User: Fold these one by one.
Assistant:
Number 1:
Amino acid sequence: MGKVSKGAKCSVIGCGERATCSIASQKVLSTMKVEPEGRRAYLCEKHYKEFKKLTRMDRKVERWRYSLI
């Protein structure tokens, strides 16, 4: 059982909702105001959707980069 299934709270400053996913804290720190717990940052559904919107182009570039090899 992971921390999300145990009821971890969202790591975004000022949010106290229940987390739905965990992401590497290095990826989240560069885009959002997060207080990470160790190597992972926990996001609620609303903030995870915002994270995906903010990192859409980065993910697309990574896919391109590996598809050319």
Number 2:
Amino acid sequence: MMSPGTYLNKRRVAAGLSIIDVAALVNTSPRLGGIDKVAWIDRIEKDIAALSPDVVAALSDVFRFSRRVLEQLITIRSYGPSAVQHAPQLCLICGCSQNDACFTGEATCGWASDDVCTACAPKSLSIKES
């Protein structure tokens, strides 16, 4: 199962944002400088820094992800897979789920397989061929 930090990393990348972009856009209290924000976001994505409700709210103001999915992943990491009734189905490439599907211009993505969405299916083929 994907970790909470990996999920946030994949959703950030899917939004087309670098860590530096997020650091420039996120508001923190107390106010952090750019270098400190970059290090803080990096620690979040490596599952080192804590994810409080304030942190989740600050990040959700910058890029799209499902708070419900994030909460489930935190619960699974803390208490094991049996702690949630249904683990979220996540795309291994972009981290999307049924709660935060990719928008491909005209429609949202679906599932090409158990762990790859239709928006990422062509990417997964090129990764396997490399």
Number 3:
Amino acid sequence: MNSPRADLTDEEIDAICAGLTQGAAQVRYLQRVLKLPVARKPNGRPLVKRCDWERAQNATRPANGPNWTRQA
């Protein structure tokens, strides 16, 4: 069985940062827009932990935020 990698692949990063090709621009987008903790690989590309990405995807709303499940 192949277990998932601990970090996102370059292809996954490219899909998330569609349109951004430079590593520095991708790092800025991931940090500033998506609020993810990002490290850098030696080649300058972003390094994102898979658990951080999945946590960000599962965070639908803040715990103290509004509950929009009912219509007005």
Number 4:
Amino acid sequence: MFLPTLIAQFGNGITSPSQAYTAGGTTQEGVLANFDLIISNLLGLFTIIGALIFVIYFLMASIQWITAGGDAGKLTEAREKIVQGIIGLVILVAAYGILGLIGTLVGIDILNPITQLQKIIPTTGP
């Protein structure tokens, strides 16, 4: 998620990674845009890491299932690992919906922090 964002910014005339985070200069708009970029990149990174952990966990449980050799105890253990992995993935995906629901109930757009920060910190052009 971080790399495609930087590639897109390079296409917009930004020539270095350090310039990508200071594209707005030192104005409040630039700082808020940088904060929003960092938050969205971290959310994407955590989601990717969680999905990779699920895939690895699921594959390990599948291999355990295949190599159980008909042993009921090993099959049950592998089945439980697969179910736990699926539950973890559902929680990971549902986290966005839960955050959005909480934000709607409270009246704060949690998934889009830049709009909330702009309401708190009024920005002015250069």
